[in-house]
Amino acid sequence: MPARSSAIGGIPNSRVKYSKLSASDDGYIDLQFKKSPPKVPYKAIALATVLFLIGSLLIVIGALLLAGYIEVTHADRTVPVLIIGILVFLPGFYHLRIAYYASKGYRGYSYDDIPDFDD
């Protein structure tokens, strides 16, 4: 009977060297489970800061307009300033809060929760 060859390149089985796996080897290496250091999304945090500041400014201006501290000729234009300020403020505050807690290392907060604009 001729010698059988393996499926890889026709090497005879008698020349292939095998080694027995240890009993504790489960096929994983420790490097697989190491976490890489978090990548800080600086552009997204800068955008969140800008949104936060613009929203805060618009909320303050809208509140002063509604309270009457700033005299207005068209009173129907004061409420939209306040609404736009709130709509701009909320995402900025939310992402800055996540960035702050992630930088302090609080459990459950990560920079991965902030959308990154790098492609």
TrEMBL record:
Keyword annotations from UniProtKB, A to Z: Cytoplasmic vesicle, Endosome, Golgi apparatus, Membrane, Synapse, Transmembrane, Transmembrane helix
GO cellular component terms, A-Z: autophagosome; early endosome; Golgi apparatus; late endosome; membrane; recycling endosome; synaptic vesicle
Any one Gene Ontology BP term: synaptic vesicle transport
TM spans (from-to): 44-67, 79-100
Transferase among keywords: no
Membrane topology: Multi-pass membrane protein
Location in or out of the cell: Cytoplasmic vesicle, Autophagosome; Cytoplasmic vesicle, Secretory vesicle, Synaptic vesicle; Early endosome; Golgi apparatus, trans-Golgi network
Major site of localization recorded for this protein: cytoplasm
PANTHER family (alphabetical): C20ORF30 PROTEIN, TRANSMEMBRANE PROTEIN 230
Function: Involved in trafficking and recycling of synaptic vesicles.
Family to which this protein belongs: Belongs to the TMEM134/TMEM230 family.
Official protein name in the record: Transmembrane protein 230
Organism of derivation: Megalops atlanticus (Tarpon)
Lineage: Eukaryota, Metazoa, Chordata, Craniata, Vertebrata
